[in-house]
Amino acid sequence: MSHQLVKFLYLIFFISCFTARSQVKTHYDSIKKELDSIYKLDQMYRSHEAADSLNRLDQASLIKALDHLDDINASNLKRVTQIIDQYGWLGISEIGKLGNTTLFLVIQHSRDPKVYANYLPLLICSVLAGDTPKKYYALLQDALLIKQGKMQIYGTQRRYDESTKKLYVDLLIDPDNVDKRRKNVGLGLIADYMKKVDVIWDLETFKVAQKQRLQKLKEKNNEH
Questions:
Q1: Which of 59, 102, 163, 200 is most buried (most C-beta within 10 Å)?
Q2: Whole-number Å distance between alpha carbons of 15 and 17
Q3: Global pTM?
Q4: Is 50 exceeded by the pLDDT of residue 9?
């Protein structure tokens, strides 16, 4: 595909986004309040304090708490998708930072690639309008790619290694330039991102490890 064609398609997409968003003019005060409540539910079991409490539960109580979390996620997702389906991906200027963040978090926490694929274009529209942080696009795009068995772009998705008991960056395209891409969407250095989970980021070590993982995946796929 030529560079000029790519620019033309990008322009068409931007125009369609602008047209879709300009068709709805209303006040979102009630939706903003509702999303504030949904945010509190979404974060009920996700704070550090809540995680510590979950870790102290016996198995039966933990299962009950996780089932409750699943119910919350399902209820939140149902309502948030209703809102997005009706109004589009509402931006910060319409529902505030917290409301906008809530839309992203609920979609992300669905862990459903079909949901990701369905709502990513609407999120992109809001990003292009300058009304949703670019990092939300990066996070959702990476999550979708990994769910599809592809390589992520921004290195936001991590995976747990049972042997080392450490997190590592999941499959990543062009790791040499990942920090440039992260900077373009408002994300910090990948080394700082991994430091938060007590992992030292070393580019060359990562590339060697990723090459080995890709080889194992290739061998596994050839077995089927």
A1: 102
A2: 5
A3: 0.87
A4: no
